[in-house]
Design a protein that fits this description.
Blueprint (H helix, E strand, L loop, with lengths): L1 E6 L5 E6 L3 E2 L1 H7 L5 E5 L3 E2 L11 E4 L9 E7 L4 H6 L3 H12 L4 E5 L4 H18 L6 H9 L3 E7 L5 E10 L4 E9 L7 H24 L4 E3 L11 H11 L4 E5 L2 E4 L4 H8 L2 E6 L4 H12 E7 L15 E3 L13 E3 L3 H14 L5 E7 L2 E6 L4
Parallel strand pairs: 2-4, 3-5, 11-12, 15-16, 15-18, 16-17, 18-19
Antiparallel strand pairs: 1-2, 4-14, 6-14, 7-12, 7-13, 8-9, 9-10, 10-11, 19-20
Helix pairs in contact: 3-6
Length: 379
């Protein structure tokens, strides 16, 4: 399962999870305390018990606004050979990809960890596309949150003159070995030259094929074209987009679009007030993966860190970063969770214990059964 946090323009903290399984009420209860709004995207099945909470604590995005009707997408099985994948393309698609490869002299690039300049370039290109199509612009904070979570990949195809022709972005799920098309954009609708419009059409197909090959070679098993209509009636433009995606020989897969938990039931808030309060030590990279786990069992009131540049800032869930000297001001002595590299863990734990001997000290780690908290035994 992949997830990322971001703060919306209205100040609400949003947690988005790509949810590949059935979604049940206990799942909503489990995650409801982690942000102001929890978004479960693409669950495979909606438990019927959820319907009674519609328009109360939960809102749904449904296909054709009908509860319980799944969305449709098209997937490519990347376990197949390159030859089998290509042979599934339509006759037109094969010709366009071959011509793009052999005669258009296109250049392919993929960015798995885009930097700020590359994010700016991507957003600028997408915004031009969105304006021509009268679509909403992408939210920078959402894109940056996805990049920081390591789940956004961007691919680009250039002309022989190094002009950007088409951009794709993907949500990358390493655990599920699945990539899903997030955005696809070009400026073809603002171009009048017919030959160039045709070349961009070929470049788009070529880019999809290169993306498939890249992700296949990197161990991914499923390429999701993200939204292909099979039995659902769409407007003319979306029918055209679905027809384009079907040229790649994709197979139908059903899932539900999203379940959004927007408010907290009172009993959840009461449960949260009874949680043991802790301070987490270490605002580094391990915190991002540890915090959702910790928040299920504890009320994380602050994060202490030695880096003076982080003091006073806030992280996910609106938690404040403090100096180690400020720990005692919180009057919390039950537990400090320390997140660090194993090679330095004992040394750092020993140092913290010497400075704060009255604290009940523990640390976050991974075991064969998953993440857990272990108590520190002073030696």
């Amino acid at each position: 399962m992949i997830y990322f946090y971001y703060v919306r323009d209205d100040g609400k903290r949003i947690l988005r999870l790509n949810w590949p399984n059935e979604i049940k009420m206990e799942d909503l209860k489990k995650y409801s305390l982690l942000a102001d709004e929890i978004q479960f995207w693409y669950p495979k099945y909606l438990n019927p018990e959820l319907k009674k909470f519609d328009n109360k604590y939960i809102s749904f995005i449904h296909q054709n606004q009908v509860w319980g009707v799944p969305s449709q997408t098209g997937i490519i099985d990347l376990n197949e050979s390159e030859e089998k994948i290509f042979s599934s393309f339509s006759k037109t698609c094969k010709y366009e990809v071959k011509r793009a490869a052999n005669r258009d002299h296109l250049k392919f690039q993929i960015l798995l960890h885009p930097n700020i300049a590359e994010i700016n370039q991507f957003l600028e290109f997408y915004d031009k596309f969105a304006i021509t199509k009268k679509l909403p612009l992408l939210q920078r904070n959402v894109v940056e949150s996805m990049v920081n979570a390591g789940i956004l990949a961007i691919s680009i195809v250039y002309s022989s003159e190094a002009e950007m022709l088409v951009h794709h972005s993907y949500i990358v799920d390493i655990e599920e070995k699945r990539v899903a098309l997030n955005t696809s954009c070009s400026l073809v609708h603002s171009i009048k030259d017919t030959s160039k419009k045709n070349m961009i059409g070929r470049a788009n197909r070529y880019l999809h094929y290169q993306d498939m090959l890249f992700f296949k070679k990197n161990g991914y098993q499923t390429y999701d074209l993200n939204g292909v209509a099979y039995s659902v009636v769409q407007d003319q433009e979306h029918e055209s987009i679905s027809a384009f995606k079907k040229e790649f020989g994709c197979k139908r897969e059903d899932s539900f679009e999203s379940v959004i938990l927007q408010t907290l039931p009172l009993n959840h808030i009461e449960e949260n007030s009874k949680k043991k309060k802790i301070i987490v030590f270490g605002a580094g990279g391990y915190l991002k993966e540890a915090l959702p786990f910790l928040s299920l069992s504890y009320d994380v009131v602050a994060v202490a860190d030695n880096d003076i540049g982080k003091w006073g800032s806030t992280i996910e869930q609106g938690i404040k970063v403090i100096s180690p000297e400020d720990i005692l001001k919180y009057n919390i002595n039950d537990l400090i969770v320390v997140i660090m590299r194993e090679s330095t863990r004992d040394m750092v734990l020993h140092d913290i214990h010497n400075k704060l001997p009255e604290m009940h000290l523990g640390y976050f780690c991974y075991s064969e059964k998953g993440p857990k908290i272990k108590e520190y035994q002073n030696k």
